[in-house]
Design brief:
- Helix 3 crosses helix 10 and helix 7 packs antiparallel against helix 17.
- The chain is an all-alpha fold.
- Helices cover 75% and strands 0% of the residues.
Length: 366
């Protein structure tokens, strides 16, 4: 059981969901989606957000039915060994999400701010910050997510500057792409929405958990509206031919921001995004650490050191844009199956088990 002093109120789930879904993906998701869905990409973004409501609903029902985190659910349904293997898949997935978030941000720093930067010292500094936050417990991480949302929310105001140059007739005609193209665009958008599955591990820390469902839905829908707004502006600001040339279109938006006391606002934006990246890394790596500790009964300090060493090792081994893209594509495809296939399947198994248990109880009572 989690001590009451370590729990957080349900409304914090809103900030946990919003923050884990809005990281460096905000800077470059447009190009990938528009490659498939063109000027209908904003519809694919909305579809992606709506589709995410299904696994969120399933997660809440699974957790409410078993009153355990994912590790406990797996052990109860599948047993120690098969359940342990399934739990390890999720642990590796969360760990890889944290690595992908860091690698993307490090690549942006190396491309836009410091082209000659040595990645090792930067990785060590990040690892120290992450270790300090994770060692403080889940409440510290939840607080970082809250601050991350608050401190970076002003960046949405920067859309005012490119709006004057946008040609919103680029949105027309609406829905002239095939269903297959829209489906591919929706799938490509899935990576930006990943991360809310950490809810499967911080379930015991929410008090009361039953009231958290509406906040999770609101968080997901807020993220969907945010991404949709950015996408609509991107379609108006760039042509489909232009967007293919930009890896991070949002940074090009920020290049158009003209403030008397700031010469290059994109530098400010990239720096402020650190308040988004650190909470995402902390939350996803915490989920992996929590899961490993619960699965193998190992002290979290040892696991934290191990996973941070793995993060640093990956930061040194993935040096090219192609390698980072391969990692992101793998996580996007893996997340699609875990969220839209495995989670609903786990819910149906839980539903069948609960009905059998209820029938057995009624039989013995009669």
């Amino acid at each position: 059981m989690v001590n009451k002093s370590e729990r957080i109120p349900p409304y914090f789930v809103f900030f946990l969901v919003v923050k884990v879904q809005t990281g460096t993906g905000v800077l470059g998701f447009q190009r990938l989606i528009m490659h498939s869905a063109g000027n209908d990409a904003w519809i694919a973004v909305i579809f992606g957000g709506i589709v995410c409501l299904l696994p969120i609903w399933c997660m809440f029902n699974i957790l409410h039915s078993h009153e355990k985190d994912l590790i406990g659910v797996h052990k109860q349904i599948f047993g120690k060994y098969i359940g342990g293997i399934l739990s390890m898949i999720w642990i590796i997935f969360w760990l890889m999400l944290s690595i992908a978030a860091y690698m993307t941000y490090a690549e942006i720093i190396g491309t836009w701010l410091f082209p000659q930067i040595n990645i090792l010292p930067l990785s060590i500094v990040f690892a120290i910050v992450i270790y300090y936050a994770v060692s403080g417990g889940f409440r510290i991480i939840a607080g970082l997510c809250f601050l991350g949302v608050i401190l970076t929310s002003f960046l949405i105001l920067t859309i005012y500057f490119p709006i004057g140059y946008a040609q919103f007739h680029n949105l027309l005609p609406i829905w002239h792409h095939s269903i297959k193209e829209m489906a591919i665009g929706t799938k490509d958008m899935s990576l930006s929405y990943l991360g809310f599955s950490t809810m499967l591990m911080y379930y015991p820390f929410i008090d009361p958990f039953k009231k958290a469902k509406k906040w999770a839905y609101m968080g997901n829908l807020t993220t969907m509206l945010f991404y949709s707004l950015i996408m609509v502006l991107t379609i108006g600001y760039f042509t489909e031919a232009q967007i293919e040339r930009y890896i991070w279109p949002t940074l090009n938006f920020w290049s158009s921001v003209k403030i008397p006391f700031v010469e290059r606002f994109e530098y400010v934006g990239i720096t402020m995004l650190m308040f988004s990246i650190v909470p995402i890394i902390c939350l996803t790596i915490w989920a992996a650490i929590q899961g490993t500790g619960r699965l193998f009964n190992v002290k979290s300090k040892k696991i934290t050191f191990l996973y941070l060493i793995i993060l640093i090792a990956f930061s040194l081994s993935l040096n090219s844009r192609e390698e980072v893209n391969s990692l992101l594509n793998f996580l996007g495809n893996a997340g699609l199956y875990l969220y839209l296939v495995y989670i609903p399947a786990l819910y149906f198994i839980t539903l069948i088990m609960s009905k059998r248990t209820k029938k057995g109880r009624d039989f013995h009572e009669n």
